[in-house]
Predict the 3D structure of the following.
Amino acid sequence: MSARPKAWLSWSSGKDSAWTLHAVRQSGDVEIVALLTTINRAFGRVAMHGVRESLVDAQAQSAGLPLVKVPIPYPCPNEAYERAMAEAMSRARAEGVTHMVFGDLFLEDIRQYREEKLAACGMTPVFPLWRLDTAELARQMIAAGLEAWLACVDPRKLDRQFAGRRFDARLLADLPSGIDPCGEFGEFHTLATAGPMFRAPVNVQVGEIVERDGFVFADLLPQPA
């Protein structure tokens, strides 16, 4: 029996990344050997989600995987992002990694972008959650024990009052019509804190709610167990 291909998982710190890890471990199609995340150098936080770097470290430890950090500047021109990611892919290939796993659900333009960039790097993209029904997927996540918090909200799409809320059945019921249950159109981003992909919960409490660059962020703070 041949060895499974080695893969890195694109790790945003959110529920979709976490659930993708769980799904891949169940399927066994590839072996995820590390998580890959981008860190905003100016703030020490995960790019876009605004999650503290220490919390992503805690997630990786609980997932039992090393965390590969790609530092990016703020603001980050697309050329700088692509250069940083190309360097990360060179490292991946040098370590025998041939696949990159993503938690994307249905945005065709994002998938096409990833496929084009990875083809140029000689890497193979994998999309385990692609085209799953997002309402059913959200319910499945919650039923399986996944816990997450809304770390970032786009107030142009979703009321700012949702920032800092727990991703649970009550939240799904409260989402206005037209809002994707998984936030796939960028309505919100999450921090996953517990679930079948983790060995132990990552305990947090909701701190200050701030607005920056047109987005509303809930500062999620590490809490001792």
In short: DSSP finds six helices and ten strands in the chain. The helical segments are 15-27, 53-63, 78-94, 108-121, 134-143, 169-174. The CA atoms of residues 74 and 178 lie 32 Å apart. The first helix runs from residue 15 to 27.
